[in-house]
Structures are given as structure tokens and as C-alpha cells.
Amino acid sequence: MRITIKDVASDAGVSTATVSHVINNTKNVSLSVAQRVRESIARLHYYPNQMGGGLRSKKSYTVGLIIPTIANETFGRLADAIQCILFEQGFNLIVCNTYYDVEMEKRALDTMLMKQVDAVFAIPAEDRCPKLQEIAQHHCPIILLDRVLQDFETDVVAADNYRGERMAINYLIRMGHRHIGYIDRMLQQSHSAAQKQGYIDALGEHGIPYNEAYVVNATGHYYEAGTGAAQTLMHRCPDITAIACYYDLMAFGVIRGLLDLGFRVPEDVSVIGYDNMLVTEASYPRLTTVETPLQQIAETACGLLMRRLQENEDNKDHPLAEPAKEKILLEPRLVTRESVAKRSAPVKQTP
After folding, report:
1. For 64-103, b where at least 16 C-beta lie within 10 A, e where not — what string?
2. How many CB atoms lie within 10 A of CB 344?
3. pTM of the model
4. Which helix H or strand E contains 329, and what residues bound it?
5. How many Å is the Cα radius of gyration of the chain?
6. What is the rounded distance in angstroms from the CA atom of residue 54 to the CA atom of residue 103?
7. Which of the listed residues 24, 90, 316, 340 has the most CB atoms within 10 Å of its CB?
8. What is the enclosing helix (H) or strand (E) of 141?
9. Could you give the residue ranges of the DSSP H alpha helices within 115-189?
10. pLDDT for the residue numbered 349
11. Is 90 exceeded by the pLDDT of residue 266?
12. Spatial CB neighbours of 288, under 8 Å, sequence gap ≥ 6
């Protein structure tokens, strides 16, 4: 026998309208009542007919998420956080990997259009994405995560990557390092450009000239690219005492590359990463890094999304009255561990 919305309402001691509001997030319901309804739904194994509700409200209660790859722990944790939040709001999440491939990204976005998603979260493969602009023209909310696109004004929720990398370099300098190498991305994007500028500006604040020879672009996105980049850097500039990496996985590769060359970490060369992946706590030495506020990005982006969907509902008779787009930057955090050693002559701290 199929469980109905009336069965759920009876079990929870509420009206069928209240159950509908909880499922479809169409009206504020007290937290205690909403929790009671969700417990009844779970206990009775009730599966709402969202397609029917979607046809009546012209909503699919589905959100798309475009990411480069779920294999990247950072993207995976962000997707997980977003899905948990959306589920509590009565929405499903479709996740598509692009593997940094523009054509695959376009096909994934086409799939989302066919699925009639209500909105799209995106970490684009490159700094331009005409397909996202096309989707936005249909008054479908687009929220970029930790990226900014050229020639496209839309909502953005991101870590302040400039501040994060500047924080990392200032820490190395306070620990006495003045010959600091930098492992950059293979392909420049808005977030990596911000990080590199943070590296350059932090050096300048302490009177350390920027040396292009101290910067190496990784030849890939994974561990092995960091190993090769470290060896290229140390063969080119053996006076380097610290290396900053745009991404933790690169940092692990850098440590391996340094060890293969006979350098000790951190006694000879210090290493600092970026993102605070879970494994940084378990590595040896434990990796000093900058923590990207993934949970805060997910919560902020989902809150902004719900607001945009409500605005679309309120303005459905005036579709041209669009609100100003927002760019929200969230604060990263320095996590100090054991992969950075103090040199003999530390410098005065700069605020």
C-alpha cells in the first residue's frame, strides 16, 4: 500500500498543507514541527511526488552543481555540504564533473537544462563560460563558487584567496624565510591569480623583490605535478628555503620531490599548502596550510540561492526586475603545523 501525504500528516499530527510546506519549502514552519514532519516521512518511507508539485509550481526542486572533479577532496567535501543543506530545504542535487574540459562542461550544462533545474552552482573549468550566460538569460539563478568569470556578472560566493595566500607568505616571512618559491596552477583562473598576487604583494610588503625564477607552474592537477615542480624549482634556485603551493595535493608532491633530492622537510626547506584537506593532519610532517571555509561557502551559497529563488517567485510577473548581483568573500584561516621551520633570523610581524 502506497503511503500518502495524509498518512504523514496523521502520523505527525499536522495538516496535509503543513506537510506540503515542509516538503516544498513554500512557507515558514517552526523548526520543531518541521522536524516532526521529516521524522514521520522517514519512518513511513514516504516519497513525495515532486514531479507533480513541480508541474503545478513550475519548479523541479532540483539544483545543478558543476565541479571539475569529485575526486578532488575539496570539491567533494563542498558538494557533500551543499547536498546536505539542500536536502533539508526539500531540494535534490545533480552533480556533474567536467575534468577541466570545456566541452564536457557544456554537455553537463545542457543536461541540467533538460532536467529543468531551478538553479546552478558552478566551479567553471575556465574563466569564460558562455553556456552559463545562456542559462542565466532564462532567469535561472547562477551562483559561482570560489570563481569569478570574465564578461559575466553573476552571484559569487568565494574564499578570499588573495588574503589567504598573503597570510601564508607573511607567516613564512615571520618565520625567517626570504627565499620563497611558489608552485602555481597549470592554467590561470581567478582564484589562482588572486593567490599569486597575494604571494607577490606579501613579498613586497617586506621589501623582498619578486623573482620570476622562484615561480613554477605545475604541469597537472595532481601529486606527481608537485613532485616535478619542486625538483624544477630547486635545480633552478637551490637557495630557496620555503615553498608555497596553491593547493595541498601539490604540497604533498613537493615534499616527495624535495625528499628525492635529499632535502629534509622542514629542516632544509619548509612547505606550506592551501585548502586544509583532511589528510594534512595525517601527513608527515603534518602540513601547515590555509583552510578554505568550505562549510561556510556551502551555507552562504545555499542561503543566497533560496533568496534568489524567492525573488524570482515574487517577481514572476515582472521578470526584468532582477536584483543586483553579490560577490561574497569569506575569510580563510591559517593552520600551523610541522612542515614550516623557523630560520635563524625571524622578521618582525606585519599586521
Report:
1. bbbbbeeebebbebbbbbbbebbeeebbebbbbbbebeee
2. 5
3. 0.81
4. strand 327-330
5. 24
6. 30
7. 340
8. none
9. 130-136, 161-174
10. 44
11. yes
12. 171, 270, 271, 272, 273, 334, 335, 336, 337, 338, 339, 340
